[in-house]
Amino acid sequence: MSSYLGLRAGDYEAKVSSFGGGPAELRFQGDDLLAPYGDNGFPPLGAQTLLAPWPNRIADGVFSHRGEMHRLDISEPGRMTAIHGFVGTRQWKVDTVEDTRVGLSLDLPAQPGWPWPSEYAVTWELNEKAGLSGVMTIRHPGIVDSDCPLGIGWHPYLVARGAALDECILSVPAKSCLPLDPQRNLPAGPEIPADAVLAHLNHGVPMHGVWLDHCFGNVASPAADGMIRATLVDREGRGVELRADAKTKWFQIFTADPARREGYPGLGRAVAVEPMTCPPNAFRSGRDIGYIKPGETVQFQVGVRALGE
């Protein structure tokens, strides 16, 4: 059973779910910044869940590491893939609860096709200026004496201060698009310019009627604070900013849409902007995979804040 942990700082308020390790709600001055699901219990369409030890899909659930084949359970039967790792569908342990900060942890034992036990922790902190910040920490405890592959991501559905998606403009700092097979959503060719799929994605795309389930790469260099930013704003410039650290090399952008029989509960159309350290099928292609050795720790930082008064 999920528990919801409330946070408050200035005009911000949030609820963090112990299931999936992510925020179920985030509001500023009463306006939604993330698609809420607090009353539903289970995160719909992966909303705000943490993605590890891989984001996105692995074809047929099969990959090779250091000359050994591994076969994961198929978690997306319709496409015969293993999707989004393990941690987003687990109940996390609540370690600390403060007015503006919560800490959760998850000890993940070996899984079918995944022989590496791992230790996960996440801290969510609310600040009256910076909004919501999250730090996920992954540790290889060395129970298995070999390194393991690693990819990380996050699955937030952005909401521009409660505005309908069709009234909003999306900006994501990516210059290329990795074509995906429409049947299985797996890479299907070399990268092409992002503008060939969605013109002016870097500078702002009106989302009226736009449907996406696309992977974008060639992400811009981080700002001076080490973070990469995407925004969703209404016509007055009020909205939400997503930030993710420099490990972010890719964004999967997905539009939930009732017209495609996959609407977001209570909202209908909603857009997920998913920062990822590696692209779909990375454990097969080898592209941008990270590796973590016994005893090592890796962190991934994300955040969300309001834009406009």
Automatic annotation (TrEMBL):
<dbReference type="InterPro" id="IPR011013">
    <property type="entry name" value="Gal_mutarotase_sf_dom"/>
</dbReference>
<dbReference type="InterPro" id="IPR008183">
    <property type="entry name" value="Aldose_1/G6P_1-epimerase"/>
</dbReference>
<dbReference type="Pfam" id="PF01263">
    <property type="entry name" value="Aldose_epim"/>
</dbReference>
<dbReference type="GO" id="GO:0030246">
    <property type="term" value="F:carbohydrate binding"/>
</dbReference>
<dbReference type="InterPro" id="IPR037480">
    <property type="entry name" value="YihR-like"/>
</dbReference>
<dbReference type="GO" id="GO:0005975">
    <property type="term" value="P:carbohydrate metabolic process"/>
</dbReference>
<protein>
    <submittedName>
        <fullName>Aldose epimerase</fullName>
    </submittedName>
</protein>
<dbReference type="InterPro" id="IPR014718">
    <property type="entry name" value="GH-type_carb-bd"/>
</dbReference>
<dbReference type="GO" id="GO:0016853">
    <property type="term" value="F:isomerase activity"/>
</dbReference>
